[in-house]
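Problem 12. The chain below contains 136 residues. Write out its predicted structure in token notation.
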Amino acid sequence: MHIDTLFNLVAKRASRAAGTPWVFCLALAVVAAWALSGPVFGFNDTWQLAINTGTTIVTFLMVFLIQHTQNADTAAIHLKLDELIRATREADNILLDMEEMDERELEAIRKRYEALADMARRKQEPRGASPCRDGD
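Solution.
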């Protein structure tokens, strides 16, 4: 099995498992056991170092798992949105690779859409009517 495929499989399963109530309860039990063992070890430096080291290692590894799954989810969402844009006749195909644009380009498109929204609001409002009703 290719390393990327293996990592993807392990990351997805670990990410899915880490988000379950059972894993949270397990983590809570570990912390409770550690806290309850404090008097046995006299709350010494080694006792504190054990939990600090364990939580640091878990946090370090989880950062990579979370980033991997977030990247995969974001890529999938972008592809799905791209397909919706592509399949909609009236859609502007320039939006297909928006995530690759720089801030200046994104700001120009945002202003264009704000202007379109403003025009649509003005068409909807009867003359002299306020967009907000009394009591809202």
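Discussion. The chain has two domains: 3-91, 93-125. Students who got a different answer should revisit the alignment rule from Section 12.3.
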